[in-house]
Amino acid sequence: MVAQTYLAYDYPLLSAFWTILWFFVLVMWFVLLFRVVFDIFRDDSMGGWAKTGWLFFVLVLPFLGVFVYVVARGRGMGRRETAQARARQEAFDSYVRETAGAPSGTDQLARLSEMRSHGDITDEEFRRAKEMVLSSHGSSWSTATPAAPPAASGASAASATAPGPEAAADRPSHIHHASRR
User: Fold this and answer.
1) Are 98 and 116 contacting, i.e. CB atoms less than 8 angstroms apart?
2) Is the pLDDT at 86 greater than 90, yes or no?
3) What are phi and psi of 61, to 5 degrees?
């Protein structure tokens, strides 16, 4: 008697599994290929001819080229990718800090007014801090980024957000009208 052998394609479920497995391997292969190509261009330690040679090797003999590249330069791939990710994160953090910026003179005056109304600072401290804020901004005090107001008796300057009536009376007219929106 002859024993009959069954292959994966003899069973529909195994056929679907086998197809999905090969599709996954193909996708992973392309991901690896593109990562290697991007790494070749990202590597600043290689010269132009070395990059050209690796690229030619990877594109002409893709399987062998990618495997040789990963074995020869794989450890550096991770380091370069990590360094690039850190650089992107630092650039993003710098952008966020730059965009958020320091509070404007109006915000500082509003905080000072709120602190005075809560009794955290005296009228004399309020007057001196207000003079510092206004003098540090000159004629364009509403658009420049000011220095932080002086710390007063353990109160947090960042806790107040709404301007009081005292701060509104001391603002220039173009700022006073803009705050009535």
Assistant:
1) no
2) yes
3) -120, 75
For the whole prediction, is pTM greater than 0.70? no
- Would the pLDDT of 150 be above 60? no
CA angle 59, 62, 66 (to 5 degrees): 105
Q: What are the phi and psi torsion angles at 32 (to 5°)?
A: -65, -40
- Sign of the four-CA dihedral 33, 35, 40, 41: positive
What is the average pLDDT score of the chain? 76
Distance CA 126, CA 44 (A): 55
Helices (H), the chain: 12-42, 48-60, 62-100, 105-117, 123-137, 165-170, 173-178
Start-to-end CA distance of the chain, whole Å, equals 95
Contact 170, 109 (CB under 8 A): yes
**For residues 114 and 126, what is the distance between their CA atoms, to the nearest angstrom?**
10
